[in-house]
Amino acid sequence: MADRPNILFLMTDQMQGRVLEPDHPCRTPNLDRLASMGVRFRRAYTPNAVCSPSRASLMTGLLPHNHGVLEVIHCVDEDQSNIRRDKPHWAQRLVEAGYRTGYFGKWHVERTGDLGFFGWQVDGSTGGKLHSSYKRRALGGSEPEPRYFIVRYNEGPPGYRRTVHYGVVDIPPEKRMGITTGLALEYLEDFVKGSDPWCCFVSLNEPHDPFVAGREAFELYDPESFEPPPNWYDDLSDRPGIYRKAGELWAGMTEREKREAAACYYASITEIDDQFGRIIEFLEESGKLEDTIVVFTSDHGELLGAHGLYCKNFSAFEEVYNIPLIISGPGIARGAVTEARVGLHDICPTLLELVGLEPFDVPDSRSFAPVLRDPSGCEGDFTRGFAEYHGTRYKLTQRVVWDGPWKYVYNGFDYDELYNLHEDPYEMANLARDPAYGDVVRRMAGLMWKFVRETGDHALFNSHYPILRLAPVGPLEEGGESGA
């Protein structure tokens, strides 16, 4: 058991993948250093752009239609969006192999909160007894009330709650996200003393909206110096109408406010970087970093003003589907950047392979361990991706397919989308209804049906009923039984 590598899993919530690009204004010195020790994936994506479905996919290696969590668990009845407990999780496999495991921070995978059942021996999840006890100690018994130096609210239409959009507060990160990292460090100090391999999962709620950061981190940024991305001013005229409708809430934002929102978001990520840096530094000083697989990623991204939108849910743009992913550790290439397209759910079989355990036999995901060992030689085998969205609160069907430069979005509620990401990285030109790209649309739709059929998405595959024939080609383009 002792010769298996340890695992440190660092996770954020709602972080864009592109903030790790070298020319990006967001400051992440510790994550940059981690990337220099491992492999950074520029084309990593989430299989679902909301929290619970994506996190359940990470744990099981399954797409949402197979693990059962189709939307966030806190907004549906107790008999809906429940994870299928007969589906194995990779932490369970680790425990069977003799690992000590601990989970700290945001869970949001499923509703029972029974982390022990899913393979996590130490339950330090937010709101649990261990986390709450540590929080009381760290805060001296009472949680401070934030005072805002800068704040903007989401307001209207009448009847909706007034909520914070972004702000700068007087509470230092040690008393916010630092509660989770502090608790994780307390247990890591015990883990590293033993001879058994361990897995420590640290999950922060940030930089999820509202974008809140402390004054020190915010003052590292000059909002006026930001170069606005071209899609800030996209009128969405050739995109689904629901995108335009959702964007009406922020239509009145000034450019200064957009810049402040971005600065608060980046400042929050800088605070995250510092907190995760504490953990990496501890492992280095303990002499355990070289024996540890370190994974850094996020469950999904954030629109951050792209196409006039914030948050996620509506739209399938890269800002919400492209996620950060860095992996370092024994046997993994150092200082490599790869274009390999891999999914959050693919981490499940990859980790199991890296520690010498048998991956789950499922068609939904596959190990990308070969890319970690030989990024330039193997990235050509990873050019496709697939994601699914079932709606959250508002029910709608969306499937996303990537193949080389092409991205196809099947919208079961409106007309589809097609983008050439090499020529149009900000997704300003929807080519789906241009007759010149008809063959590409049909080929990409056929690829969608291939993923649907092979992963057993029966509800969508059996959509032959006349009024449900909304795709440019039908399921039988890839074979299979007809349905109704």
Write a structural description.
This protein has 484 residues and is of the alpha/beta class. It is 29% helix and 18% strand. The chain contains 15 helices and 15 strands. The chain has helices at residues 29-36, 51-60, 64-67, 90-96, 129-139, 178-191, 215-218, 241-247, 255-285, 318-321, 347-354, 369-373, 375-378, 438-454, 458-461; strands at 6-12, 38-41, 100-105, 122-125, 148-154, 163-169, 198-203, 211-214, 292-298, 325-328, 336-338, 384-392, 394-403, 406-411, 417-420. An eight-stranded mixed beta sheet has the order 4-3-7-1-9-10-2-11, sandwiched between helices. Strands 12-13-14-15 form a four-stranded antiparallel beta sheet, covered by helices on one side. Helix 6 (178-191) runs parallel beside helix 9 (255-285). It is globular and about 65 Å long. The model is unreliable at 479-484 (pLDDT under 50).
Would you summarize the structure shown here?
The protein has 484 residues and is of the alpha/beta class.
